[in-house]
Amino acid sequence: MPLMKKLFALIALAVLLFGCAQSGVTQEKYDELAANCNKAKADSASALSTEAARTSAANARFSSCNEEKKSLEALLDVRETENAALRAQEAVLDSARAKTGIAGQYNATMEYYLEAYGPDKVPNNARIKKIDTQVNSLNDATLKSYWVDVKNCQGISGCDDAKEKFTSYIDGRITAFNLEAAAIVGKSQ
């Protein structure tokens, strides 16, 4: 198609030149017109070449940017997948942390108990109040019941039995929550 346009342009130029020659244009005017046409043609070819080079450079930059965009999109997909996996791990760890946190609360209850009732310790109102507060914060009906039994126990064997139930229950709860936390973490791996 561009060849056809050039052919038509040359035919139009020939008709114009022929028409000018027929109308009595002098050789000097004809030479000037031909020189102007040649100059215009050379300028147009140069401008076309410059624009073609610019277009080629722009296409190369576009292609490079497009490849970089694809690479960055692939990297973004990888990062999103990694973030999803990290969020899933975080949820698992939060759940396990919650279990170990509860175990820690039972452990604190045991520490408070040992401060008041441990070997060579004498319970006083402040220590008993500390245990009361801790037991109530756990909201565990069985633990509360065993604690009431310890506070209200009578006789050596009755008190020893109540204390044993209370401490055994706490130890069991600590172990259970720690095992649950370990199982949660184990399932995620």
Could you outline the blueprint of secondary structure elements for this entry?
Elements (H helix, E strand, L loop, with lengths): L1 H21 L4 H91 L7 H14 L2 H11 L4 H33 L1
Helix pairs in contact: 2-3, 2-5, 3-4, 4-5
Order of SSEs: HHHHH
Portion of residues in beta strands equals under 5%
Number of strand elements:
0
Number of separate helices: 5
CA gyration radius, whole angstroms: 47 Å
Q: Terminal Cα separation, in Å?
A: 67 Å
Oligomer: single chain
Shape: rod-shaped
- Biggest β-sheet: count, sense, barrel? none
Mean pLDDT: 84
Poorly predicted runs of 5 or more residues: none
Helix content: over 70%
Q: What structural category arises from helix and sheet content?
A: mainly alpha
Provide keyphrases for this structure.
189 residues; mainly alpha; 5 helices; 90% helix
